[in-house]
């Protein structure tokens, strides 16, 4: 009986040890895979350094941020894009933004991630991978994200990507779902920037 | 080698949830840490207040009458906590998976608990496997009323690193245990052959020996939506019925309903005729919601004594938008009355509960500054409704609300970041208020 108990104990410890080690391995692989997924499709990511990560200023988007964003752009037209790292069509759309990146300025576009600050590293990685790191970027920072959604637009159900086209008077048009590259091109022609980002 | 290649191929192909033009995650990902003061103490025991996505059920058997069972996730464990005072205090929790594992613990994908007719406690959850959106359905049981649990087993027979997630569990009147989940194996197969395949599929298992063993995985339907929770209830014969979001032609994502077990009456007495719904799922909602991508917003289901399925769901369809309530007649196989619950953009997560002629609806509604839990009641089977009530509010993050029934009283349960796990009576002595 005693021997049986000992045997059970040993087996249990073995299972525990194996379980733990596989868990540790598992999480390592998860990270690796996550990185691969993001970096694989872009050749430009070879020289990403932690510097680039820390240089990217991902601002906390709070209830008052929308007013800050519009105040900074008083009298100017701009595009505001709501996106998430968990939204495949958003990432697809980022390829269009990447293709047009030379036409973006400090003020004519703003990107807001609806993820939460815990995801900052991943958000930055996505921005860097799409060479959008110089664009004004924010991340939802509120324990009640609905509050931010409501602040941006009480009639927005949360669908992504969500794009707002503001004219110079800040009359805006909302668009749900992907924006086509042609649509973006058109808007950019209509509101041609005077100076482009480096 | 071939298997390895297939796994490699499928993980690469399935690394995105959908090749979509839109999804619905904007501002749904609340912060994860509890703000309840007692949870900030590093020495605090795991508890339904401090953990995530608690899910509760009341024991109604003679020996265990009035004991509340709550499962929740914390620190890579699913815990069971019990309470004999309606959740005012909890006994020390039991870790169901002794080895920690990554798991899905969001409102839409949470642990499930079902009590057996004797001392059995059944628990299921989804283990997060390597890769985005991948997971395995896990199951563990206790035969001693939750004091000890057997080592968890993986339910899905397909072990590719793809999605087998959004488990749901229910016992039928014969004590057979059903587990159903959303499975991407058929999509993976199709994509390996470069064939189109919309959405995922629904797979299920049944155990007829109290969870000791399960019959092989069975496919219930092709083309389910990828990431909306599955709703289950039993009909007036005790048979398990399921309601889920289905991908119809042209990426229309409305709901389908069916008896879960398509084999239940095959090979049994020929006197038991298989109903249409046992053979084929039927469309239960017809909103014409075309959306490329999954809205992460599954339905709820509650079946009355006359076999009317009461349903609550979210849609942004051509035909109607917002939170909806509707009925489906399981005897006549047809859609019944449909009405709007709430059309505001801040309304989400509708729940429905029916008891005799009383129908209850509950949902979350953001009201500018705070999140409110709204309740609506009908005394005539859903034809007319009394005025809405707000039964709770919170200023911080919150889980999906749920129902809890102790045999006499209906409760709303709501886990909020700042208040913890709340159990709110909504209809005391429900049975005398016919």
Concise structural overview:
With 198 residues, chain A is an alpha/beta fold. Chain A has seven helices and six strands. Chain B has 434 residues and is mainly beta.
Describe this structure in words.
The complex is a heterodimer of chains A (198) and B (434). Chain A has helices at residues 2-39, 50-55, 65-72, 88-99, 120-129, 145-152, 181-190; strands spanning 58-61, 78-83, 109-113, 136-140, 162-166, 172-176. Chain A is of the alpha/beta class and 198 residues long. Chain A has a six-stranded mixed sheet, sandwiched between helices. In chain A, helix 5 (120-129) links the parallel strand 3 (109-113) and strand 4 (136-140). Chain A starts with a helix and ends in an 8-residue tail after the last helix. The relative contact order of chain A is 0.16. Chain B has a domain at 57-224: Neuraminidase (6 Propeller). Chain B is 6% helix and 41% strand. Chain B contains four helices and 27 strands. A four-stranded antiparallel sheet of chain B has the order 1-2-3-4, with no helix packed on it. Chain B has a four-stranded antiparallel sheet with strand order 5-6-7-8, with no helix packed on it. In chain B, a hairpin with a 2-residue loop joins strand 2 (68-74) and strand 3. In chain B, helix 1 crosses helix 3 (185-192). The radius of gyration of chain B is 21 Å and the shape is globular. Mean pLDDT of chain B is 89; it is low at 1-20 and 429-434. The interface between A and B is large, with 47 and 51 residues.
């Amino acid at each position: 009986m005693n021997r049986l108990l000992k045997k059970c104990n040993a087996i249990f410890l073995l299972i525990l040890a194996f379980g733990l080690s596989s868990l540790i391995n598992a999480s390592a692989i998860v990270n690796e895979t996550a990185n691969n997924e993001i970096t694989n499709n872009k050749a430009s990511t070879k020289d990403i350094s932690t510097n680039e990560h820390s240089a990217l200023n991902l601002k906390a988007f709070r209830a008052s941020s929308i007013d800050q964003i519009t105040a900074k752009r008083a009298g100017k037209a701009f595009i505001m894009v709501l996106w998430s790292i968990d939204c495949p069509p958003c990432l697809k759309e980022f390829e269009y933004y990447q293709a047009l990146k030379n036409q973006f300025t400090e003020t004519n576009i703003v990107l807001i991630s609806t993820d939460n600050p815990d995801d900052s590293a991943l958000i930055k990685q996505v921005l860097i991978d799409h060479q959008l790191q110089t664009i004004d970027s924010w991340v939802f920072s509120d324990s009640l994200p609905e509050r931010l959604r409501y602040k941006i637009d009480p009639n927005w159900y949360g669908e992504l990507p969500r794009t707002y086209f503001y004219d110079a008077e800040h009359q805006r048009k909302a668009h749900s779902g992907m924006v086509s590259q042609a649509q973006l091109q058109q808007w950019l022609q209509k509101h041609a920037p005077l100076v482009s980002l480096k | 080698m071939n298997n390895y290649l297939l796994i490699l191929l499928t993980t690469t192909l399935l690394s995105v949830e959908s090749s979509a033009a839109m999804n619905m995650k904007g501002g749904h990902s609340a912060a994860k840490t509890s703000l309840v003061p007692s949870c900030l103490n590093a020495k605090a025991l795991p508890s339904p207040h401090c953990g995530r996505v608690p899910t509760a059920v009341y024991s109604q058997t003679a020996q265990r009458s009035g004991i509340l069972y709550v499962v929740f996730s914390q620190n890579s464990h699913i815990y069971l906590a019990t309470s004999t005072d309606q959740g005012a205090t909890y006994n020390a929790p039991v870790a169901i998976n002794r080895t920690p594992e990554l798991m899905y613990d969001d409102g839409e994908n949470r642990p499930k608990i079902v009590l057996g007719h004797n001392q059995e406690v059944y628990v299921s959850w989804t283990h997060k496997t390597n890769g985005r959106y991948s997971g395995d359905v896990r199951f563990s049981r206790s035969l001693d009323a939750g004091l000890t649990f057997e080592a968890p087993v993986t339910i899905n027979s397909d072990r590719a690193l793809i999605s087998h997630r959004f488990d749901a569990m229910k016992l039928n009147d014969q004590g057979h245990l059903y587990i159903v989940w959303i499975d991407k194996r058929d999509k993976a197969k199709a994509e390996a052959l470069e064939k189109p395949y919309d959405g995922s599929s629904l797979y299920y298992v049944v155990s007829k020996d109290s969870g000791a063993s399960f019959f092989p995985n069975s496919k219930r339907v092709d083309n389910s939506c990828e990431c909306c929770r599955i709703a289950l209830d039993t009909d007036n014969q005790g048979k398990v019925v399921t309601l889920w979001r289905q991908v119809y032609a042209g990426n229309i994502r409305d709901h389908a309903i069916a008896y879960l077990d398509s084999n239940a009456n095959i090979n049994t007495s020929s006197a038991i005729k298989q109903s249409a719904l046992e053979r084929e799922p039927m469309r239960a909602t017809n909103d014409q919601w075309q959306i490329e991508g999954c809205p992460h917003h599954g339905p709820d289901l509650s079946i009355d004594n006359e076999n009317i399925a009461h349903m609550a769901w979210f849609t942004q369809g051509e035909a109607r938008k917002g939170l909806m309530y509707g009925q489906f007649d399981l005897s006549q196989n047809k859609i019944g009355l449909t009405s709007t619950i709430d059309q505001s953009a801040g309304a989400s997560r509708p729940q429905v509960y029916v008891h005799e002629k009383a129908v209850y609806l509950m949902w979350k509604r953001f009201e500018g500054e705070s999140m409110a839990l709204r309740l609506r009641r009908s005394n005539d089977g859903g034809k007319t409704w009394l005025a809405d009530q707000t039964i709770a509010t919170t200023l911080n993050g919150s889980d999906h609300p749920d129902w809890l029934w102790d045999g006499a009283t209906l409760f709303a349960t709501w886990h909020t970041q700042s208040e913890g796990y709340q159990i709110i009576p909504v209809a005391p002595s429900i049975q005398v208020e016919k």
